[in-house]
Task: structure prediction
Amino acid sequence: MTRPTTDIRAAERADLLTILDIYNHAVEHTTASYDLEPQALAARVAWFEARQAQGWPVLVAVQSGQVVGWGSYGTFRDKPGYRHSVEHSVYVAPGVQGSGLGTALMRPLIERARQDGHHVMLGAVDAENAGSLRFHERLGFERVAHFRQVGHKFGRWLDMVFLQLLLEHPPEPRARPPGR
Ligand SMILES: CC(C)(COP(=O)(O)OP(=O)(O)OC[C@H]1O[C@@H](n2cnc3c(N)ncnc32)[C@H](O)[C@@H]1OP(=O)(O)O)[C@@H](O)C(=O)NCCC(=O)NCCS
Result:
């Protein structure tokens, strides 16, 4: 059977319901997200508008006219010293996982982050999410931190792993100390 072609494009408002469905499936059935309750559409709209206002990318994967995955990145932490680091999210619809869509979403996101001069891309992954850990490592991400029992969902403690990718873009030159 031939695989349907996949388009990767910028998300639009009309995609938000499907983006939300894909996310909420992970919320309700997995530890991929530490949200405990399905997100409301209004919250997803607010998220999208904030991402757009701040110039952060939100991409969707489309097959046969249907959104089947999405990915985005944004601020890692608010303090200005973190401005060269970004944190991403990527979610693929359950029926089509493992067919290359996550990779097809991440590659342009990584390229965009590099071109925009960011230095580090980070992902926070539940330590039980072996598929996502493997997925990130295949993209070149490296496990750099393992936080024990920082999450609690489905009646148990959850460990969270940070993975990071150095984007090989030199940081802005350091200001010279005065008098040198
Ligand atoms: C993790 C995720 C984004 C990866 O996207 P994907 O389209 O399934 O992955 P791809 O097909 O591009 O890459 C396949 C690789 O990812 C890994 N992988 C992760 N989840 C997988 C799944 N459900 N099925 C198959 N492979 C999966 C495997 O390592 C696989 O390579 P391998 O089989 O050769 O080892 C996607 O599976 C997903 O949305 N999972 C549920 C939500 C989630 O965990 N999101 C990430 C939160 S940090």
